[in-house]
Amino acid sequence: xxxxxxxxxxxxxxxxxxxxxxxxxxxxxxxxxxxxxxxxxxxxxxxxxxxxxxxxxxxxxxxxxxxxxxxxxxxxxxxxxxxxxxxxxxxxxxxxxxxxxxxxxxxxxxxxxxxxxxxxxxxxxxxxxxxxxxxxxxxxxxxxxxxxxxxxxxxxxxxxxxxxxxxxxxxxxxxxxxxxxxxxxxxxxxxxxxxxxxx
Length: 199
Prior knowledge:
Blueprint lengths: L1 H5 L3 E2 L4 H9 L1 H9 L3 E6 L4 E6 L11 E5 L2 H20 L4 E3 H8 L10 H17 L3 E3 L6 E4 L2 H5 L2 H17 L15 E7 L2
Helix pairs in contact: 4-6, 4-8, 5-6
């Protein structure tokens, strides 16, 4: 329970003993979380679990999870990671991406008039660091700037949601000049729940 509340997720690969305990006592953990207006999400196939705010309709309840806004570029990186995860599933492989892969994919969103290439690259790095913090990206040992995409991402965003957002981004990339793309402070996906207790 403490591990789940600490966030961002609990998985069999990283926490094998805790995963066994969670499977054994799932109903008890669900009950305790419900008392805090939290919901347990468990994927037995991927062997990963996390918590999110429970849907309480119009009932006013305390919010215990931090929510983070994603910038336009954050959202674009997230879409790419989700797409790589879907492709790896088809082939039964781990989803592994490199920093160069991400930079290349994000280059279509760099304003044509941009004279600060290092600044744009730094923004991409900030997005990567954000997803590392949330354990969506995991460093691969002995492989610099290479990451594994966590299966947790599939639970956060359905294939349908990703498809809709991807179409929206493709429209932006094809119909607008790069200089017209949203600025750093804008967001396309709304709030992102970070599965962690507020301070």
